[in-house]
Specification:
With 360 residues, the chain is an alpha/beta fold. The chain has two domains: 1-102 and 261-360, 3-Layer(aba) Sandwich (Isopropylmalate Dehydrogenase), CATH 3.40.718; 116-255, 3-Layer(aba) Sandwich (Isopropylmalate Dehydrogenase). It has eleven helices and twelve strands. The chain has a ten-stranded mixed sheet with strand order 2-1-3-12-11-4-5-10-8-9, with helices on both faces. β6 and β7 (153-159) form a beta hairpin. α9 (295-307) runs antiparallel to α10 and α10 crosses α11 (341-355). The protein is globular. The two termini are 13 Å apart.
Length: 360
């Protein structure tokens, strides 16, 4: 039996509600597949913890997390705690300390009725964004000079190392080669005359080792346009931290909204645990109402299973999500249904169980 140790950080707002449904799916898999077992350890870190202790996580939090196979994060952020504190002192700390330099964001339309784009099919909106996740514009480098004075100056420095840039681009080439898809690099070299010129040069250099991978390169403004007008241009996309953050929200919009947006923060070398999360935020306005959409959190469980080498369960989860998106009565209100968060999770487990005989 394979046993996977999972650290739960439900976090803030609707985080605990959607994580509970993801855990429900994992527990169902454990019941359905005698070859898999999960152990869960929950940590109370987040904004409430900050308001009580003055910090987003325990001082030895990173050390505590090191022994897990994966981290399952709900959401971070709540009124009363500045966003830069909630983000930097928990989520970004984990990403950086565990060298989770690959961020995987699938842009996959599972129900054509959900896209706001006219005449676009599921075949035309189906690609993977690979976002650099450890440096770039989110490196945290900079300075604040002459604060409060007329000559006040703020410097925010994007950091693009040879190591960081090359490894994310190489990862993307490998994924494009493995899946026999095209690879598109998105940058802004015409305006960012150091960082993005360097990015483009590394993309070309690494590409020489992958002559069979067909490549494209777009400026980020053009790519934003094509995400909406011609998403069929894209199969695998690689881009920087900031551009990836923005573009993948456009991707969520064209596939059904943030309630379906998932992300995996991967340390490919597996030297440290990787982290899986819905990326819709904490949504404090609907917290506690039982109407939060848990599909993104469940989709991140699919990504987790793929990472564990249990692709059959990863595919099964994605297939059940697709089936559920055609069952309007089983969906939460943001997708036009009337189900509660818990009811959606219960129905999901029912459908997953019905498929289990094909998998074990």
């Amino acid at each position: 039996m394979k046993t996977f140790k999972i650290a739960l950080i439900p976090g803030d707002g609707i985080g605990p509600e959607v994580v509970a449904e993801g855990v429900k799916v994992l527990q169902a898999i454990e019941q359905l597949d005698p070859a898999i077992s999960f152990s869960f350890t929950e940590f109370p870190w987040g904004c409430e913890y900050y308001l009580e202790h003055g910090k987003m996580m325990a001082d030895d939090g990173i050390e505590k997390l090191k022994g897990f196979d994966a981290i399952y994060l709900g959401a971070v952020g709540y009124p009363g705690v500045p966003d830069h504190i909630s983000l930097w002192d928990l989520l970004l700390t984990i990403r950086k300390e565990f060298d989770q330099y690959v961020n995987l964001r699938p842009i996959t339309l599972l129900n054509p009725a959900l896209t706001p784009l006219k005449n676009k099919t599921a075949e035309q909106i189906d690609f993977l964004v690979i976002r650099e996740n450890s440096e770039g514009e989110y490196a945290g480098a900079g300075d604040w000079l002459f604060k409060g004075k007329p000559e006040e100056v703020v410097l925010q420095t994007g950091v693009f190392s040879r190591k960081g840039t090359e490894r994310i681009i190489r990862y993307a080439y490998e994924e494009a080669k493995r899946s026999n898809r095209t690879l598109t690099s998105i940058s802004k070299a015409n305006a960012l005359n150091y960082s993005m010129v360097f990015w483009d040069e590394v993309f070309e250099e690494v590409g020489k080792e992958y002559p069979d991978v067909q490549t494209y390169s777009y400026l980020v403004d053009a790519a934003s346009l094509y995400f909406v007008t011609e998403p069929e241009r894209f199969e695998v996309v690689v881009t920087s931290n900031l551009f990836g953050d923005i573009l993948t929200d456009i991707g969520a919009a064209i596939t059904g909204g943030m309630g379906l947006a998932t992300g995996a923060n991967i340390n490919p070398e597996r030297s440290y645990p990787s982290m899986f999360e819905p990326v819709h935020g904490s949504a404090p306005d609907i917290s506690g109402k039982g109407i939060a959409n848990p599909i993104a959190a469940i989709w991140s469980v699919s990504q987790m299973m793929d990472f564990f080498g249990e692709e059959k369960w990863g595919k099964a989860i994605l297939s059940v999500i697709q089936e559920m998106l055609h069952e309007k009565e089983s969906l939460t209100s943001d997708l036009g249904g009337e189900s509660t968060t818990t009811q959606l999770g219960d129905r999901f487990v029912e459908l997953l169980a019905a498929r289990s005989s094909e998998l074990v």
